Amino acid sequence: MTNGWIDIKNTDMMLIMGGNPAENHPCGFKWAMEAKRNRNAKLISVDPRFTRTSSTADLFCQIRAGTDIAFLGGLIRYAVENNRIAKEYLVNYTNAAFIVKEGFKLPEDGLYSGFNEASSSYDKTTWNYEEGGDFSGKTDGATPAHATPASSNPATPAPPPALPPNIAYDLTLQHPRCVFQLMKQQYSRYTPETVERITGIPKDQYLKAVDLFTSVRKDGDMKKVATIIYAVGWTQHTFGTQIIRTAAMIQLLLGNVGRAGGGVNALRGHSNIQGATDMAGLYDSLPGYLKGPIPADTDLAAFLKRTTPASSKPTPWDSFNYYANTPKFMVSLLKSMYGDAATKENGFAFDYLPKPGQDCSWTHIWNDMYNGKIKGMMAFGMNGVMIGPDTNKNINALKKADWLVVGEIYQDETSEFWKAPGITTDEQKTINTTVYRLPCAGFAEKDGSMTNSARWVTWKYAAVPPPGQARLDQDIIAQIFLRVRDLYKKEGGKFPDPILNLSWAYADAAHPPLSQVAMELNGKALADLTDPGTNQVIKAGQQLPGFAWLKDDGTTACGNWIYSGMWTEAGSQVQRRGTEDPSGMGVYPNWAWSWPANRRVLYNRASCTPDGKPWDPERKQVWWNEAAGKWAGNDVPDFKPDSHPKDHMGPFIMNPEGVGRLFAPIGVLADGPFPEHYEPIESPIKNPLHPDRSNNPLVTKFTTPFDKFGTPEEYSIVCTTYRLTEQYHYWTKNNPMNVQLIPEPFVEIPVELADEKGIRGTDKIKVISARGTYIAKAFVTRRLKPMMIDGKKVYQIGLPIHQGFRGITEDAGRDARTPANLLTPSVTDPNAHTPESKGFLVKIEKA
Amino acid sequence: MSQATLAVRRISGHPGPAPGDDVERDFQVCKLVDTTTCIGCKACEVACLEWNGYSFTDTVFDNSYQTMPETTWNYWNLIKFNEHEREDGSITLLMRKDQCMHCADPGCLTACPADGAIVQYTNGIVDFQQQNCIGCGYCVSGCPFDIPKFNPTTKKMFKCTLCVDRVSVGLEPACIKTCPTGCLHFGTKDDMLDLAETRAKQLRENYGIEKAGVYDPAGVGGTGVIYVLHDVTNPEAYGGLPKDPHIPWVVRFWKGPAKWIGNLAMLGGLLGVTLHYLRYGPKQVDEAKDGNGGKP
C-alpha cells in the first residue's frame, strides 16, 4: 500500500475493485466502515459477483472478469472530459507535461511501436521522452536536440535506450506529444458505450460509478480524497500489472497519491507476504527491491551501471532520484552476506550471486520440472499442487521429480500428490519421487517479524513451543545449510566459495535467533563513520540508524536497505507499542515501525501544494516549515528534509524523473507505457478494440500436454475463483471451526443458468475447463446476473478455492475431492508472472 | 449461570413478587446490531460458541452462506443471509445477526409455568435457569422470534444469555468483543438507542437510504437487542425478523385471564357444590324406587 490500513478511515471515497476486503480482510475492513461512519465516505464495489463487500457499498457494478482496464480507462476519459482532475498536481508532480519521442505509436491496433513478432517482445526505444527544454506554449517543435547516435561501428551494439537527462516539456499540456495529450488520445476510445460492450456494465450504471468516484475532484477542488483498494482480483490476470498501472494513473490524475485517505492500496493476502516480497522471495529481485543480476552483468560495475538510474527531468526542476544510491544498498547487502570475503578488489563478491538467464518464476518452475530440468523441490508452507495453476500439470510434474521435501504442519496435497484422485495403485507404483515430510512450527509456535500490507513491521511472539518433533523454519534451513557447507568443505565441488564464505555469525549456528537476523537486516557500521553534516559518529559494530548511513565502500553491512532502522542502537523498533496518535489520522508514530524510515503515507510531500502547504488543512500530514528550513509533520516526510519548495523537487523520489508516471517509459513495464485493454487468454469474445490482437502480445503459452486452452464455442461460461471469510486458503479445511462454517465446496451460478440446465441449489454439478473438472454442489444465486458482452449473452460463475483432496470433509468422503485449480490456465502476466486464475472459460453439466 | 451482582426483576411461574424487583435502579443493557455495516463474517458465531464452551457441529451446505437454518440449543448466535430484491430491481445481500432479543416483556417468561425456570434481571437480561426447567416447551409458544431451543438429551431449553456471566462482572458480551468491523455495540438502552437513531439519521440524510430506521419493537415492550436496518418498513427481509412481534394472545390469555377464569371455575364449582349440599343435603337414595340398583 502507498498508504495504510488505519489511514483508510481518512478517506471520502473508496473504489474497491479486484478485491473483496469485507470477506478477505475483515479486520482491516473496519477502517472502511469507520470512514463511512465518521466521514460519510462513499464506497463503490466493482466485482464479477455481488459480494459481502458489495452489501456495504453505495454503488455496485457487476463486471466481466478481466475487463478492469476498460472500466478504469473509461474513468480516465470521464475525468479528463469533465475537468475532474488535479491540474496543479498534474503539472507539477507527474510527467503529464513531458514530451514523448516522435515515432511513439499508441496501440489502436493492439500494438505499441517497436513490436517484434518473432520474439514476442518490444524494442522500447520510442517509449521515451524527448530531450530538449521548455516547449510550453509551442505546439510545434520539440524536435530532438540531437538524434540518437547511430552506432559508428556495426559490431558494437548501440547502447540500450536511456532516459534523457534533460526532458522536453510543455507546462500548458497542449503539445500533441506531451504525455497528457497522448493519454487523452489513448483513452478517447474508451467511451461509455465501448466500456459497456466490453465489461457488460450498462452505460447508465457505469456513468453513475465514474461520476461518483470523480466527484471528489469536482471543478478541480482539492479538499476531498479518494482511495483505490484492490487485491488479487487485479493481479491474477495476464495484464495484472497494467490494471494496477491504470489505477495509479487515475490516482495521479486526481491528485490522490500522497494524501491521507488516498493512494493506491494493495491488500496483501498472507500474513507476511509483504515481508516475503520485501526480502525478495522472487527470482528476479534482491532484498529491498533491488534488481536481480542477469548474465549480462559481468561484474559489479556492470550491474551497478545497469541498475543505477541517472536523474532525468526538466532542467529547472530537482529530482532526488533516490535509487542513485543503489551502489550503497548493493554493496552493503553483499557485505552483509559475505562479510570479509567481500572486498573492494573482488567487487564485493558479486560473482557469488546466481545470475538467472531465464524466467524462473512460478509457472516456469513447474514447467521445467515437468520437462525434467528440475529434479527436486523444497516446498515450505506452500501447497503447490493446490495453488496450481493447472493442478494436473503440477501433479504430473511432481511425478517426474526425483525428490520432494515438504515443510508443513499437516499432511497436504503436495506431499500426497501421488494419492491424488484419479491415480490408481498401479500408477502409484511407477512414481519414483521420494517425498520427505518435515514437521514445521505453526504460526503461533514461532516468533519473528511480520510485515502487513501497510508496510508496518511488527514483532510477534511464540505462544506455545512447537509440538513433538516439529522444528522452527530457521532451524531447518540453518541445519540444511550447515550440512551442505560441511559437505563442500569435505568433498569440494563446483564453485564452493559462495557457500563456504556465506556469513553465518549467529549466536547458535543451528538455531539462529531471529532477533539477530533482524539486526543484520537493519545493518551495522563496519568501520567508524562520521556524518559530515551533523558530526554524528557511529562506531564500528554499532547498529545503523537508517539507510541514509549506507556506504558503497564496504564500511557498512545491511541485509535489506528498506528495513534499515528497524533495529537500531536504541533497540527493536518493531516491538514498540505506543498508542498515542496526536494527529488523530491513525498515524500512531510509535507503534511498530514501517518501512521506509517509519513513514506511514508514501509520497506525502504531494499532500501539499507546490509551495508546501497542505491541500486540506484539516488533514495535515507534512508541511514546509520556513523558519526551520525543513519539512515537518505528523508523519515522517517522504522527501529530502531540507529541499525548499522553490527548488521544485519532485515528490516521487524513487523515480529518476522525481514525478509520478502517467506514461511509463522504457524499462519500466514490458508490455506498454499506457495500459491497454486486452482480453483474458480464454475469453468469450474477440477484443472489440482490436479483434485481430485480442490478447496481451507478450503472453506466451507452455506446450506440455496439460497446457490446453478452450474455445468459447465449447466453453461458453466465464469462470472466476475466489476466497471466503470463513476459510483461509488450503489449510483451514483441517480445522473443525472453519469446516463448521463452510462445510463443503460449492459453485455460485446464476439463477437463469441453473434454470436453463435444470439445476437446483445443492445439486452436484461438474465445472469443466480444457484442463480439468471440478465437482461441487451448485449454489444458485441472484448475486451473479447474466451479462450482455458485445451483444452476446454471457454467464459468469465463481467458485471458492479452499477445498482439495485432503481435509476433514475430504477424508470423510463427503465431497468429490477436486481442487479448484484443476480448472485454471498456466498463463501469466509478463511483468509480475502472476497466473490468470481470475478469468477463464468453462462449461457446466449435472454430475 | 452466574448471577454475580445482578438482581432479579421477574421470575417465571412464581407466586408473588420477585425478591429483586424495585430493589435496585439498574440501567437496561442493550446490544446494538448495525446491519448496514455487518459483513457476515461469523466471528460472532464462533465467539459465542467458544465463550459458552460448545463444540463444533457437523453442518451441511444448503445453498447459502448461512451456517445452519436456525439457532439450536447449542448454537445461540446465527447470521441469517437473504438475497433481497430491492424496489429498483437490484439485488442486495442482507445479513442479520439472529439471537435472543431479550424483550422487556418476554413472551417466554410469561408462558413458562415452572417456578424460576426463566428470570429477568433488573438490567433487562432474560435468562433460562436450566435447573428449574421442566422441558414443557411453553416458552416456544410464547416467543415471537422462535428463539428457545430444546436439548433432546437433557430435556432443557437453551438460548442466548446476553453473556450474563460477562456482563455481571462488567465485561461486554463475547460477540461484541469479537466483531471486527465495529458493527456491534454494547451499552445502556438509552445510549444504544441514541447511537442507533443517529446512525439511521446519517443513512437517511447522507446516503439516500430513506427507509433506514431502528428496530425496537413496542409489541414486546422494546428489546435488549436493537437493529439498525436499511429498510425498517420491511424487517421480514432480514431473515424473517417479525414486523410486529408480540406475545401471542393465546399465551396471554392462558397465563392471564384463563387462570382467573379457571380459578373462578374451580372456586365457583366448589362454592356451588357446597351451597347445593347446604341447601339440599346429601344425595338421597330412594329405597322404594331402587330395587334393582336404582333403575326406575
Find the count of extended strands of chain A (DSSP E, 2+ residues).
31
Largest sheet of chain A: 6 strands, mixed
Name the quaternary structure.
Answer: heterodimer
Strand order of the largest sheet of chain A: 25-27-26-31-24-30
Give me the Rg of chain B, rounded: 25 Å
Quote the beta fraction of chain A. 5-15%
Estimated helix fraction of chain A: 10-25%
Describe it.
The complex is a heterodimer of chains A (847) and B (296). With 847 residues, chain A is of the alpha/beta class. Helices cover 22% and strands 14% of the residues of chain A. Chain A is built from 22 helices and 31 strands. In chain A, the strands form 11 sheets. A 6-stranded mixed sheet of chain A has the order 25-27-26-31-24-30. A 5-stranded parallel sheet of chain A has the order 3-2-1-6-7, sandwiched between helices. Chain A is globular. The model of chain A is unreliable at 145-152 (pLDDT under 50). Chain B has 296 residues and is an alpha+beta fold. Chain B is elongated, with a radius of gyration of 25 Å. Chain B has a 4-stranded mixed sheet with strand order 9-2-11-10. Chain B contains 8 helices and 11 strands. In chain B, a hairpin with a 5-residue loop joins strand 3 and strand 4 (91-98). Helices cover 26% and strands 18% of the residues of chain B. Chain A binds chain B through residues 22-23, 26-27, 29-30, 33-34, 36-37, 40, 42, 50-56, 58, 60, 724-726, 736-737, 739-744, 746, 761-762, 777-783, 785, and chain B through 36-37, 39-43, 45-46, 55-65, 67, 83, 85, 90-95, 180-183, 199, 202, 206-207.
Which descriptors apply to this entry?
heterodimer; A: 847 residues; alpha/beta; 5-stranded parallel sheet; B: 296 residues; alpha+beta; 4-stranded mixed sheet; 3-stranded antiparallel sheet; 26% helix
Topology at a glance:
The complex is a heterodimer of chains A (847) and B (296).
Chain A: E1 13-17, H1 21-24, H2 30-39, E2 42-47, E3 59-62, H3 68-81, H4 87-93, E4 115-116, E5 121-122, H5 179-187, H6 192-199, H7 203-214, E6 226-230, H8 232-235, H9 240-253, E7 264-266, H10 273-278, E8 285-286, E9 290-291, H11 300-307, H12 326-338, H13 362-370, E10 376-380, H14 384-387, H15 391-400, E11 403-408, H16 425-430, E12 434-439, E13 448-451, E14 456-460, H17 473-491, H18 497-500, H19 514-522, E15 524-525, E16 529-530, E17 537-538, E18 556-557, E19 567-568, E20 571-572, E21 593-594, E22 622-625, E23 630-633, E24 717-722, H20 736-741, E25 746-750, H21 751-757, E26 764-768, E27 773-781, E28 787-789, E29 792-794, E30 796-800, H22 808-811, E31 840-846
Parallel strand pairs in A: 1-2, 1-6, 2-3, 6-7, 10-11, 11-12, 24-30, 25-27
Antiparallel strand pairs in A: 4-5, 8-9, 13-14, 14-21, 15-18, 16-17, 19-20, 22-23, 24-31, 26-27, 26-31, 28-29
Helix pairs in contact in A: 3-6, 3-7, 3-9, 13-15
Chain B: E1 8-11, E2 29-34, H1 43-51, E3 78-85, E4 91-98, H2 107-111, E5 118-121, E6 126-128, H3 138-142, E7 149-151, E8 156-158, H4 164-167, H5 174-178, E9 184-188, H6 189-206, E10 213-215, E11 225-229, H7 249-255, H8 257-280
Parallel strand pairs in B: 2-11
Antiparallel strand pairs in B: 1-5, 2-9, 3-4, 5-6, 7-8, 10-11
